[in-house]
Structures are given as structure tokens and as C-alpha cells.
Amino acid sequence: MTEEIIIAGFGGQGVLSMGKILATAGMKQGLNVSWFPSYGPEMRGGTSNVTVILSDERISSPVLNEFDTAIILNQPSLDKFESSVKPGGILIYDPHGITRHPERTDIEIYQIEASNKAVESGNMKIFNMFVLGGYLKLKPIVSFDYIEEGLKESLPERHHHLIPANLNAIKIGQEIIKKVR
Amino acid sequence: MGEIRLMMGNEAIAEAAVRAGCDGYFGYPITPQSEVLEYLMAENPYERTGMVVLQAESEVASINMLYGGGAAGKRVMTTSSSPGISLMMEGISYMAGAEIPCLIANVVRGGPGLGTIQPSQSDYFQATKGGGHGDYYLFVLAPSSVQEMSDFVKLGFEIAFKYRNPVMILSDGVIGQVMEKVELFDPIPRRTEEEIIKECPWATTGKTPDRERNIITSLDLDPIRQEKHVMHLKEKYDKMKEDVMWENIKTDDAEYLIVAYGSSARISQKTIDLARAEGIKVGLFRPITLYPFPDKELERLSKQVKGILSVEMSLGQLVEDVRLAVHDRVPVEHYGRVGGSIHTPFQVLNALKEKIVNKY
To answer: Residue B182: what are its φ and ψ, rounded to 5°?
Structure first.
């Protein structure tokens, strides 16, 4: 099993931390993992992306040009990465602020209204956990227990009281993801 | 089993330094390796082992702090990225001349000049062919994983003291920034003053009545003595071949070969899987030490293949050593993105077909 993922959105949406939680959880579960971020001046206010690989084999390249799953959180990322999903792969996106929706017909497309849900919950910081929940519903590669461990290890200790809220958001995310086609 | 952690390559270098019994780290921030200094500052290893961590006022100051610490027999290191390493070149040449052990990690970014902060492998010549002035070489290790970023700090110190020579870890922005699983080695205590006096009889540890003064310098105005000294250095460089390292991946039945180090070796591994799925029998030769270069091992392997593609993020530097190793008996071509762009596994596959498989 090898799962190659791109997570992309605006800087500040929690793209990198979502990837880190997933990678940490995967490692705790005994998988080989790789987390390779875009780094540089584009990170503040611009687009940010991270390539995450989970595998039970040795991981070769941390740099990829096509993905099993693309998690897309803004329009520029959709424009950039829609074509990079492998045929038969999955594209998950938050329709909030999207003006040109995905057009490919050879991949599975899912929507998750994470922005709206985060506004509703009054806590924008758990936006990325709704998305992670939606992803885990489709690809339950990493078990919930390890996600909790991943959260513990990725979050600084002063934020550990927020773990239940994060876990709850992951559960809700699993419920609100819906298939477009 | 050692402790397992998910770490960035840069963080792994920093943690490994503390565990390897490093006495002093002197550095100056520069992307993409600033996490080394950040990690060490947050970790405060002085509390753990007594290791000194200092942000110097410049790269020039850092390298000269290494000169001082290394001359006293201490395990000292610095890290920087391409423009910062260029600033250090004078100090590095002096340390090679004065035979001072130290560890320098270069997390390479695109150049020339200030260039970009994105990954590149364009400092190969600088690392392996001197870089500073004079007849000298560094022992150069090229990690291709976070695990090796950690392991090579320990190994680097061993090699540096074995040969009394600066050792360079030549990495790049990919391996510095990527997070992977790493198994950390158990901590080695810092050496005591007594151990340093015993293991480094050449070091400036304070003159005792029973021996001559230890003088650490690269200056000797007498050409006869200086020639003798340079020939002594050459003997060391020749002896370094004992410690040459390389890795063969899927080469047993290979009809074609990719030669790549560091991040390009990782990217090329994926290319090899893609190519083999199409029936192209290609293997990977990965030099782990870039100096000494594993030329004999590559030459042996080259006899079974029809063509070699040298893959590196540069205009073609490694490719020169590949050509020298195989004596032009096998066609050797180069492929690589430059200026901070990273080639993808597919781009390498296309280059392999275009430049090698379709031609030879």
C-alpha cells in the first residue's frame, strides 16, 4: 500500500499541520511516511502545499508529479493540481470561494463544506480537521487512535486541551463529506 | 532500537549533533537550513551535555570559531546554505591546510549568487574539488534521507578526527526540509579534557613540560617543508578511499544505469520503478561519499550497461566524475533541472528514454 497525497491551500489554513498530523499518525501506526512542504516567500497569504506519502514499503521520492489524492482548499491550488490526480484517483475540495469547479471525469470528486462548518462552530482553527475527517472517511488508512496520538505529538503541549475539539471536528468531517461524481 | 521520531532533515542534523557529543555549534541563519540553529536554540543543549550553541555575527566568524575549537581538539560544527558556504571558503582552506577536524553541512540552494532559496545540487564542484584555494579536498558525504542526515553527523565527526580533515555533509533543500521517520542513535558523551589530550596529541590543549609546543597553522614559508606537507596531505586523501561509500539499487539485471546522489537519487528511485513497469531494465548507482568518489565501483558496474544517465539538479557537475570513472567506454549523458526547480520522477524518466534508451 502506498498513498500519495497533495494538500494545498492558502497559507494559514492549516495545510502543513494537517499533513504533519497525518504523517505523524501514520508513523505511529508503523508506516513509512514522508512530508515535503513548499517553503519560501509564497507561504504568507499565498498558496502553500505539502506532499504526504504513507506506505508500508520504503518510500522512494518525496517529490511527486501525480497523486492518488488531492485535497484542495482554494482556487489557485485547484487550478494547479487538478491535472495531477492519477486517473481513478480522488479529489477533495472545499467549494467555499471556488468559482471554477473541477472538470475532470476520470477521477472521483468529493466536496467538503469545511469553511462553513468552521464558521458555524465558531472556531476557524479546526477548519483543517473537518477536512482531515473527510479524507479519513474515504481513505481509512490511519486509524482514529493513531490520529489522536498524531495530534498529541504535533500540537504543542499548551494546546493539548484543544485535542477533543479537534477529534470532534474530524468526526463531523467524516459525516459532511459528499460525493459530487 | 533507538528512539524513533518524525523529523525534518535539518532538525535531525541538530539533534544528531547533540547526541554525537559535539562540543560547539557556530552558525548563522540562512534558508533552507535555519531550522538547525532554531532547533538547537530551542533545545538548549548546554543543559543536556554542555554543548555550546552560538549564533555568530556572520558565516566568516562561524568558520573561524570552528578553526579555534577544532584546533583545541573539540568536536565542532557549522551548517549553512550555498552563499553562506562560499563565505566560509577561506576558513575551510585554512583548516584543510592546518589539518583541523570539523564538520560542515551545506543544505544547498539554487545559485549562482544569492540565487533562490529552493533546492539545488549546484555546489558539487565547490564541495568535491576544493572550493577554497590550494591543493586540498574535503571528505564529502551526501545523505539522501533524514535518517542519513542524522547518521552522517556521527560518522562525519569520526572521519574528521580519523583524518584530521574537515568533513562536509552535502545536502540540499529537499533533504533539509522533508520530514521522515528517523531512528536516532544513542547519545555519545562529549569527550573529557583528558580524553582529548590522549586522542588528539596534536591539539592545542596546553603545553606540558614533557613535549614540544603544538603549533596549528597553515603557513610555512619554506617551499621544501610546504611541499612535504602537501604531499603528506595527498597521502591522507589517497587513504580516504578506504572509507568510500556507495549504494546499488536494482542493478543486478540492469541494462541502463542512472547515477545520482542525495535528493536526485531518491527521485530517480521512483523513476526506476516507473521505467521497470514499462520493461526498461534500469538500475541506480548512488555515490554516498562524493569525495572520495566511488570510481572503481562505478567502473565495474558500467561494464554491464549500454548507457548511463547522470541526474543532478545542476548544469552537469557530477557527470564529470561519472565520465572519468567509466573512461568514456560507456555513453554518459546528463539531465537536471536548475535554479531551484526540482525534477520530477516523470521528467527523469522522459530524459532517460530520450537521451539513453532510445539512443543506445
So the answer is: -135, 135
Of residues A27, A36, A62, nearest to B6 (C-beta): A27
**Whole-number Cα distances in Å, B214 to B200, B203, B217, B248:** 11, 6, 10, 44
Q: How far is CA A104 from the centre of its chain?
A: 20
pLDDT in tens, B92-150: 999 999 999 999 999 999 999 999 999 999 999 999 998 999 999 999 999 999 999 99
Query: Residue A17: which pLDDT band, with cuts at 50, 70 and 90?
Result: very high
Domains of chain A: 2-111+139-164 (3.40.920.10)
- Cα angle, residue B328 at apex, residues B326 and B329 outer, rounded to 5°: 80
Secondary-structure class of domain B248-357 per CATH: alpha beta
Which residues does B62 contact at the CB level (< 8 Å), separation at least 6? B26, B27, B28, B56, B78, B80, B88
The CATH 3.40.50.970 portion of chain B extends over: 3-193
Q: Could you give the residue range(s) of every CATH 3.40.50.920 domain in chain B?
A: 248-357
Q: Specify the pairing of strand B179-184 against strand B102-108.
A: unpaired
Sign of the torsion angle spanned by Cα atoms B107, B108, B110, B111? positive
Query: What is the per-residue pLDDT for A151?
Result: 95
**Residue B191: all three cell numbers together:** 569527550
Nearest CB partner across the interface for A33, out of B6, B271, B342: B6
pLDDT confidence of A40, banded at 50, 70, 90? low
Interface predicted TM-score (ipTM) of this complex, two decimals? 0.93
Distance from CA of A179 to the nearest CA of B (A): 30
Residue B263: list chain A partners with CB under 8 A. 62-63
Whether chain A has a CB inside 8 Å of the CB on B273: the answer is yes
Mean pLDDT per 10-residue segment, chain B (360 residues): 93 98 98 97 96 98 98 98 98 98 98 95 97 96 98 98 98 97 97 97 95 95 97 98 98 98 98 98 98 98 97 98 95 96 97 97
Please, what's the largest Cα pairwise distance for chain B?
Answer: 73
Task: Tell me what the mean pLDDT of segment A116-129 comes to.
Answer: 94
CA–CA separation, B204 vs B192, rounded Å?
15
Task: Indicate whether A45 pLDDT > 90.
Answer: no
With beta carbons less than 8 A apart as the criterion, state whether B118 and B81 touch. Answer: no
Distance of CA B26 to the CA centre of its chain: 18
Topology of domain B3-193 in CATH is Rossmann fold (3.40.50)
Whose CA is closest to A34, among B299, B145, B216? B145
In A62-81, the residues whose Cβ lies within 8 Å of chain B are 62-66
Q: Do B307 and B359 contact (CB within 8 A), yes or no?
A: yes
Strands A47-55 and A2-10: antiparallel
Decide: residue B236, CB within 10 A, 0-12 exposed, 13-18 middle, 19+ buried: middle
